[in-house]
Amino acid sequence: MARFHLADIQRAARLIDPVFLHSPQYEYAPLNDALGCRVVLKVETMNPIRSFKGRGADLLVQNASTPLVCASAGNFGQAMAYAAKKRGLPLTVFASVNANPFKVERMRALGATVILEGADFDAAKEEARQWAAGRSQRFAEDSRDVETAVGAGTIGLELLQANLDLDILLVPVGNGALINGIGRAFKDSGSRTRIMGVQAQGAPAMIESWHARRKITYASMNTIADGIGVRLPVDEALEDLYPVMDDALLVSEDSILQAMRLLFRLAGLVVEPSGAVPVAALLEHHRFQSMKVGVILCGSNLTDQQINDWLL
Question: How far apart are CA 116 and CA 96, in angstroms?
Fold first, then answer.
């Protein structure tokens, strides 16, 4: 049984801070020519935290009244910090010792206490869970707390309201909140658009779990797409994912970098690796030729060094 439905997403669209809503969505001819299909961009980078995470975090924090703890690769932590600061709530974010320095700096600038623990996101999350339990504070978990998926679902709602008649929608898959929210909006609306998830080959746990219909975990991962780098899928997110994702693809690191450069060169968009994986799928696979394809560009938080190394 689904944890939420289209009506919950429609209600969320009336509650979420408008600064995160109604992001740009448009077809861009130069990309069409380069990729051999009609491409509709949904740009989730033009807001105060430069990612889609503000939608779900804002909804989640609206229901909170005590200090919060979370774990993040960086974007969810920024979103939680922004929402908690607005409501005067203390927030502690756990991030990996290898987390993106720009994201860490932004979380702190937004008022969060940031603790660096663990070699990757999942290790940091386990530290955060134990720390919160030891202090009887609420541990807010992306994709397990249903508000994160419901909030992300408002992206799907906006696409549906535009009557774009997409053949397929390519969505980055990390912990699952983004694709679960969007997928639920499309499925409950009766849309014929196919929902396809995209992950990096170096962090395939969610997609492999979806294929196997059971949780598959990894001891490590290896990808520049830190925002969707997940080793340990969340049980609730997998249950949400099974009925809403129609297909899935894994993409290489080379394709991710090519996609980032293409978006920067042709569309003038700075997109982080996690946000570029849908375009990487278009570059790597020829099955989309002549289709009308929607792509979710979910974040743009890069360090100066990453911009120099990857885009310039």
Answer: 5
